[in-house]
Amino acid sequence: MKAQPIVWLVVLVAGLAFVGGRLSTGTLSDQAPSIEYAETATTEDVASTASAKPDVQSLPTRARIDTVAPEPLPPVDQPLAESFDALLERTRHGDDRAACRLSVDLARCARRAQMASWSSSYERQAERTGDEARAQRMIDQVVQLDAALQRDEALCAGVRGDQLDWAFPVQLAAARWRPELRVWVASQPALDPTRFLSDLEAWQQYRAVALPWLREAALAGDPAAQILMARVYGDDRRNGPPIPPFRDIDDAAFVTWAQVLSRRNIVFQAVERAASEAQARLGAAATAAALDEAERILAHSPAETLDENAGNDATRRSFAPTPTADSCAD
Fold this sequence. Notes:
Blueprint: H1 5-19, H2 43-49, H3 80-92, H4 96-128, H5 132-150, H6 153-156, H7 161-164, H8 167-177, H9 182-187, H10 200-219, H11 223-234, H12 251-263, H13 269-282, H14 284-300, H15 308-319
Helix pairs in contact: 3-4, 4-5, 4-8, 10-11, 11-12, 11-15, 12-13, 12-14
């Protein structure tokens, strides 16, 4: 018997709440369809995707330390289908450079597969709706998605679904071995939020490290991570950016990180306005404690004031922290 749509909607929302907050909608070429338009899972769908998948536990816990010159990585424009087997074998042996490269390429192709699914969903919904204006909006979204799909067409041609299943395990392992990848993983895990049920264990693994890794980078002075901390604790808007894909709304923590941003000259009117509202809810004593915490962070972290260009760069990285394939050669 088919599961009723409302049942799976409730399960999906409960799942997203477990992940840590609400997902938001935004630019449709980069994000999943809203629940209003999304196709609904069935019990058969969940069963078909619940079979054993690769897990980070199947990879070494530590990277191998090379005593000789490291093996070169494939050319950055080589199709993933051609390099996958060799890169995965090197990853299985603890090669952090291979894990980095494979994680970057797999994440791009997994994202492309998600967007292709969303495009098909919008197209089917447009055919079914009797609302001409709504149908046109969906077709416009399909056009945006299809344009985005072209960017990685050559890289991802021929990549199989069972290979894409390695995207998150390899990404997580790579970040454990190479800390510079952790803000990326915390911000953009290679997981599909519309498949929460079938990827429950992976989402649990993600939530175990996401906030600690972001906090670690923020305390080390990474301004993009500091922006993300303010977003996690303070941005509860339904249409806010879903990067990272969870929220832990906390007025005191938000005021702290908003103050860190302000002191570093990373100024957003929306953040300043929301911080003022949060301070009003907290009251004088709790606000003072939150601001004191910001001063402690600034006193023990790199806290130089950023100029406009550096601030803009940090903002861009907070939305798109994805490393480049050639950065993995370092």
